[in-house]
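Students often ask why inverse folding is considered easier than folding. One informal answer: many sequences map to the same fold, so there is more than one right answer. In these notes we will look at a single instance of the problem. The structure comes first.
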């Protein structure tokens, strides 16, 4: 794959493991408490992979990503079975990224995960503050987060940290302290996420009753700005709105497929996928059945739709504008036959939110703060 912008033939595989030891009150992912049906779920995932292989034909994998949920609850044997099947069915390219999202509590299992073939770990440390971790409903404290980083670095070459900031009561000085700790921890990648209050979560319900769980919009903007400058000065420039890497080689290959409009297969309950190149009917969007019991039962495990050129273009614009390199308008036209909204683009340029260099447009620093709103102005209005 050529950096961030040219997925070409690249194919990824996303495996969603939906179980978590505890459900965090802010989390809106497709998650459940363990049901004791791991073997049956794994069997369904393996069957699903074989069914997808029959449709994609022969294409090798640039990445295999275990997300969740908490895939660090999977045993090395279970991980090994998926990795072996992926290699047998498609073939993992030399140096393919095999990533896993881990909870710090599962650190004793890191060596086993590496032996099974995992080569990149993203660790959900979320915060280095005990009180904040309690408020976030996490099942680990700050010390456990720190020891998990050491454990991960002793086993994996590529380690990333997830942090959640803009929590109620958090000041700029407090966030800067946490961020600096993460940057100095020895990892090569950082994903600092602003706390989002999702309506369908416990936090969503508490917020609707008037409880303050996150910071004001203004302070959120200041914290985002601070994140950009502190990370950049520490040699971790942003390559996407919420993702920072030491070097291009440290960027997430898996997420890059999303942002660059690449192809990936999604297996496991609720997993999304996109396939464009190997089909002749346009880009296919798939979403696996969300409930583990339905997914396990099969034989049909996915709902599918064929994206219209307008929907395909909208998605490519919204995702593509998230990366610092921005969006290539010629590529957008080649993939979808569509262009960005000319008036919207002109407006966003005048307001200083978007800049253009030849066929490439990208968000400015101010634009990144309002990314979704700004990119939304570029989506062509099909009804006009
Ligand atoms: C699917 S979780 C997987 C990681 C693992 N289960 C864990 O929590 O340690 C991916 C990341 O999304 C982030 N996240 C989830 N919900 C969020 C929210 N409402 N606001 C901000 N970040 C969130 C967290 O940083 C989390 O680590
Ligand atoms: S944040 Fe992670 S551990 Fe918490 S519920 Fe979501 S996926 Fe599970």
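Output (designed amino acids):
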């Amino acid at each position: 794959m050529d950096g961030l912008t040219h997925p070409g033939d690249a194919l990824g595989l996303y495996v969603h493991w939906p179980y978590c030891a505890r459900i965090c009150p802010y989390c809106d992912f497709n998650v459940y408490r363990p049901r004791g049906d791991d073997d049956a779920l794994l069997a369904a995932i393996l069957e699903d992979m074989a069914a997808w292989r029959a449709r994609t034909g022969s294409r090798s994998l640039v990445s295999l990503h275990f997300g969740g949920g908490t895939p660090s609850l999977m045993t090395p044997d279970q991980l090994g079975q998926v990795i072996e099947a992926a290699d047998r069915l498609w073939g993992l390219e030399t140096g393919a990224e095999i990533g896993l999202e881990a909870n710090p509590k599962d650190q004793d299992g890191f060596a086993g995960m590496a032996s099974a073939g995992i080569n990149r770990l993203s660790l959900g440390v979320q915060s280095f503050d005990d009180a904040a971790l309690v408020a976030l409903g996490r099942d680990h404290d700050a010390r456990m987060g720190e020891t998990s980083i050491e454990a991960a670095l002793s086993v994996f070459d590529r380690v990333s940290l997830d942090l959640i900031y803009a929590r109620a009561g958090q000041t700029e000085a407090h966030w800067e302290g946490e961020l600096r700790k993460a940057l100095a921890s020895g990892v090569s990648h950082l994903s600092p996420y602003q706390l989002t209050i999702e309506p369908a979560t416990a936090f969503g319900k508490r917020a609707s009753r008037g409880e303050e769980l996150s910071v004001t919009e203004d302070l959120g903007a200041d914290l985002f700005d601070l994140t950009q400058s502190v990370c950049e000065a520490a040699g971790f420039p942003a390559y996407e709105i919420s993702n920072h890497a030491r070097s291009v080689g440290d960027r997430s290959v898996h997420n890059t497929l999303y942002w660059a409009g690449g192809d990936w297969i999604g297996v496991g309950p609720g997993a999304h996928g996109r396939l464009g190149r190997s089909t002749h009917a346009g880009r296919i969007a798939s979403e696996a059945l969300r409930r583990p019991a339905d997914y396990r039962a099969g034989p049909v495990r996915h709902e599918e739709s064929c994206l219209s050129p307008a929907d395909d273009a909208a998605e490519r614009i919204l995702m593509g504008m998230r990366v610092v390199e921005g969006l290539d308008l010629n590529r957008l036209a080649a993939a979808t036959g569509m262009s960005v909204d000319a008036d919207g683009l002109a407006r966003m340029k005048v307001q200083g939110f978007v800049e253009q260099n030849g066929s490439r447009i990208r968000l400015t620093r101010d634009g990144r703060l309002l990314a979704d709103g700004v990119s939304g102005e570029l989506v062509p209005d099909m009804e006009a």
